[in-house]
Amino acid sequence: MTFGLCTDLYELTMLQSYLENQKDKQSVFSLFVRELPQQRNYLVSCGLETMIQSVLSYSFSLKDILYLRSLHLFSEDLIRYLEDYRFCGDIYAVPEGRIVFANEPIIQVEGNLLECQVLETLILNIIHHQTLIASKSVRSVAVSKGRNIIDFGLRRAHSLESGLYGARAAYITGFFGTSNLEAGIRFGIPVYGTMAHSYILSFQTEEEAFRAYIRSFPDNPVLLIDTYDTIQAAHLVVRLIQEGQKVTAVRIDSGDIPQIVRTVREIFDTHGLIDLKILVSGGVDEYDIDRWVTDDVPIDSFAVGTCIITSSDQAYLEMAYKLVEYDGEPKVKYSPRKVTFPYKRQIVRRYQNGQMLSDEVVRYGTESDGDCLVEQVVKNGELLRPHPSLEEIRMRCTHDRALLPEGADRLDRQGYLVRVV
Predict the structure, then answer these.
(1) Number of neighbouring beta carbons within 10 Å of residue 49
(2) pTM (2 decimals)?
(3) Distance (Å, rounded) from C-alpha 21 to C-alpha 23?
(4) Where in the chain is the domain with CATH 3.20.140.10?
(5) Is the distance from CB of 131 to CB of 104 less than 8 angstroms?
(6) Is pLDDT at 417 greater than 80 in this prediction?
(7) Which of 27, 89, 276, 335 is positioned for an S-S bond with 113, CB 3.0–4.6 A?
(8) Domain 144-309 belongs in CATH node 3.20.20.70
């Protein structure tokens, strides 16, 4: 895919005027989040690899050029520029999986004004979506206390692409796997699935359905037990196991979860089935997980979908892509509540007693005694080093989370636990 028309019209109208006015000097654009949502204590940077691949592939196909000509808006000078477009600038970024806060430069793009400006919509779209989902999914991981969480969100995602990259973002933050097979093959994320209620309903009896499924998948059968009567189904599972059938886990998708799960767990334990796992799904979000874990409801794994893949409580971030330097001069926006910082910047993170204490945003190249988060990843339109593996990014996120100050992983807003100056 060339991505040329994955932009807003005003990007190209600005480019035409830039050309006419010889506005083609070296520039720096910075992408950052203006302020944290009320429900977030921090964000997880995500989407860098996807964004770089898209930027380095960004071009205009013949079909794109013919369409732009048909609009009768653009000069031949601009058309020729777009026909030859390739990004030849530099990109500086916070690595994926790192914890970031408001007003910190997550991505910075440096090059001539035209080549950086036209990328605004593409870069914002990719980084915004994956950072949004990562910053939502990490909340479930934070309160799960080590229990496995699986992404079941594809069917409720806003598009197939958002489901795909949402699964990637969730895995980076610590999800155990996904039901999304495309995410499995594309990113190497472990895939998991059980059965739907339609499977049970297609057989004459629940027992017939269970036996058929166990025959089909004898190594790791997970049975859905809430189609009719969950308690009766639990007793049926016990009987099947006593007959020598193998059942790895059961899934419960509805009802009064704490009460039902406790009853099912008691049935299994009474018959010595202490290793038989219970997976819960059905509209689960981080608040459910936090409440059930705090109340010691004996759930082994959670399958989460709609609330995570759509970031249901916070549909967007106040993310912006702004010009901060042009021809060596600082550029600052002074609009109320939308003030920007000048120049290319570095984030210097400092720690105290093994925990994050403060971040200082300084001009890039300033000497510092802390952990510098911003790295150059593209130079002259070329990737400087191979992308890290998804497992490396995942470990980076886990490491950063372990350094958060106490209270940062709570679901309610705790204020600025890490000071940004």
Answers:
(1) 20
(2) 0.96
(3) 5
(4) 9-133+317-420
(5) no
(6) no
(7) 27
(8) yes
Query: What residue spans of 190-309 are helical by DSSP H?
Result: 197-201, 206-216, 230-242, 257-270, 286-294, 306-309
134 within 8 A of 73, measured Cβ to Cβ:
no
- Residue range 23-44, pLDDT digits in tens: 999 999 999 999 999 889 999 9
User: What is the C-alpha separation between 277 and 280, in angstroms, rounded?
Assistant: 10
User: Is the CATH number of domain 9-133+317-420 3.20.140.10?
Assistant: yes
Residues whose CB falls within 8 Å of the CB of residue 296, separated by 6 or more in sequence, listed in order: none
**Cβ-proximal residues to 240 (8 Å cutoff; 6+ apart), any chain:** 207, 210, 211, 214, 247
Angle between helix 257-270 and helix 230-242 axes, rounded to 10 deg: 20
CB 316 within 8 A of CB 295: no
- The answer to whether 188 and 172 have CB atoms below 8 angstroms apart is no
Q: Give yes or no for a contact between 60 and 82, defined as CB atoms under 8 angstroms apart.
A: yes
Nearest to 144 by CA among 292, 252, 346: 292
Paired residues of 99 in beta bridges: 44
Dihedrals phi, psi of 229, to nearest 5 degrees: -125, 110
Residue 245 · residue 219 · CB < 8 Å: no
**Secondary structure of residue 27 in the 3-state scheme:** strand
Cα dihedral 114→116→117→119 (10° resolution)? 120
d(CA 109, CA 29): 5
Q: What is the DSSP secondary-structure string of 95-120? A: PTT-EE-TT--SEEEEEEHHHHHTTH
In the chain, % of residues over pLDDT 70: 99
Contact predicate 260/297, CB 8 Å: no
**What letter represents residue 26's amino acid?**
Q
Angle at CA of residue 256, ends 254 and 258, nearest 5°: 110
What's the pLDDT tens digit per position in 283-342? 999 999 999 999 999 999 999 999 999 999 999 999 999 999 999 999 998 888 777 889
Q: What's the pLDDT band for 200 if we cut at 50, 70, 90?
A: very high
Q: Torsions phi, psi of 107, nearest 5?
A: -130, 140
* Positions of CATH 3.20.20.70 in the chain: 144-309
